[in-house]
Design goal:
The complex is a heterodimer.
Chain A: E1 8-14, H1 24-28, E2 34-36, E3 42-44, H2 55-59, E4 65-71
Antiparallel strand pairs in A: 1-4, 2-3
Chain B: H1 2-7, H2 24-38, E1 45-49, E2 64-67, H3 73-83, E3 88-94, H4 95-101, H5 103-112, E4 117-122, E5 125-126, E6 132-133, H6 157-164, E7 168-173, H7 177-189, E8 194-199, H8 203-207, H9 215-225, E9 226-228, H10 229-232, H11 237-240, E10 244-251, H12 257-272
Parallel strand pairs in B: 1-2, 1-3, 3-4, 4-8, 7-8, 9-10
Antiparallel strand pairs in B: 5-6, 7-10
The chains are: A alpha+beta, B alpha/beta.
The structure holds thiamine diphosphate (TPP) and iron/sulfur cluster (3 copies).
């Protein structure tokens, strides 16, 4: 598929009980997908906006977030 | 991708002991991704660490791991590699562990050019014991043992490694986690002593005392102060003064210790026939 980006499916998984609420993922996400909930733990607020860049996964110090990108 | 990381962790031991926002977990994640990319057989992969917050990393990994004594990780790793040269051996150390109490093991492992991949978690401080200065604490920074600001100059780990004989030397920060992973991969592929310095945040024992903010703010500081080798080449020493140069810094060819040792063994065996 020359030119157009291949459509992709992104799966975000969160291991909430390991989250320490440092806010790194929330701040580094370019699409404001992630938020901290009322308990200060990460939550996926806008799943549809996720582009699968993996910045949250690479920078979470607690292995909480898993980003799986499937090319369709 | 992360599922891959988690699959190599001893999950029953999580969440880990590190403070919120501590960079050690980011380094550990990059290391596991590098090990997967290298395609290492977990049963032939060894991770050795010393003592310190960062050295706790070995305990979370589902490989052959050895959590040794303060400053002696390289001595144990040298023994493992000599006894079983077919194993891939990673050595995890804090900046204090590697360059203060373990400074002699560090320079002599480099001098021998033994095939080990050392990942040094440089958080500029002794994190585990509450924030005493290390040989990597920058001048004027505050620590529990330098309440008026630190007087001594800091080591440059990369220059130290290079001067002592390491054949692969690189540096990245936890902000540049992808680069860090790539450098660990390249270091492990080097047949000789490889040093990868990972600049990482200790918000609790270093950041707080120096008013550097939380883990996130310290991560953004890394982003704002890192320059690539290419950029650095065009900058003056003055411009580079508060910068961290990241990327592959040095590579060289030299005889590798376990290989020369095996050669000697083969030569002597031949003589006896
Ligand atoms: C022989 C010996 N001396 C001193 C100590 C106390 N001690 C434990 S960890 C540490 C320094 C930790 O600093 P670093 O190696 O930089 O690792 P970090 O905790 O910052 O990751 C010291 C001095 C010890 N455990 N053993
Ligand atoms: S993968 Fe990228 S876009 Fe998606 S949540 Fe993580 S940081 Fe945000
Ligand atoms: S980076 Fe990890 S630990 Fe920090 S808030 Fe996000 S999910 Fe939680
Ligand atoms: S004291 Fe520092 S190095 Fe140790 S776990 Fe806490 S933030 Fe990390």
């Amino acid at each position: 598929m020359a030119g157009a980006a291949a459509p992709k499916v992104v799966r975000l998984e969160v291991q909430r009980n390991w989250c320490k609420g440092c806010g790194i993922c929330v701040a580094l996400c370019p699409k404001e997908v992630l938020k901290l909930d009322e308990f200060g733990k990460v939550t996926v607020a806008e799943p549809a906006a996720c582009i699968g860049c993996g910045r949250c996964e690479d920078h979470c110090p607690d292995f909480v977030i898993s980003v799986e990108v499937e090319e369709k | 991708m992360l599922n891959q990381v988690v699959s190599s962790l001893r999950q029953e031991r999580l969440p880990h002991i590190w403070c919120p926002g501590c960079g050690n977990g980011i380094v550990l994640s990059a290391l596991v991704k590098a090990i997967h990319e290298l395609g290492c057989d977990p049963d032939k992969t060894v991770v050795v660490s010393g003592i310190g917050c960062s050295s706790r990393a070995a305990g979370y990994l589902d490989f052959n791991t050895l959590h040794t004594t303060h400053g002696r990780a390289l001595a144990f790793a040298t023994g493992i590699k000599l006894a079983r040269p077919e194993l891939t051996v990673f050595v995890l150390m804090g900046d204090g562990d590697a360059t203060a109490i373990g400074g002699n093991h560090f320079i002599h492992a480099a001098r021998r050019n033994i095939d080990l991949t050392a990942v040094i978690f440089n958080n500029s401080i002794y994190g585990m014991t509450g924030g005493q200065y290390s040989p990597l604490t920058p001048v004027q920074k505050r620590t529990t043992t330098a309440p008026y600001g630190h007087l001594e100059r800091a080591f440059d780990i990369a220059e130290l490694a290079r001067g002592a004989g390491a054949t692969y030397v690189a540096r990245a920060t936890t902000y540049h986690a992808g680069l860090l992973k790539n450098l660990i991969v390249a270091g492990a592929r080097n047949k000789g002593f490889s040093v990868i310095e990972a600049i990482t945040a200790c918000p609790t024992a270093y950041g707080r005392r120096n008013k550097l903010g939380n883990g996130l703010q310290m991560l953004l500081w890394q982003r704002d102060h890192a320059v690539t080798v290419k950029q650095a080449a065009k900058m003056s020493p003055e411009e580079l003064r508060d910068k961290i140069v990241i990327g592959e810094l040095y590579r060289a060819e030299a005889p590798e210790f376990t290989a020369t040792y095996e050669e000697l063994v083969a030569r002597l065996a031949q003589k006896e026939k």
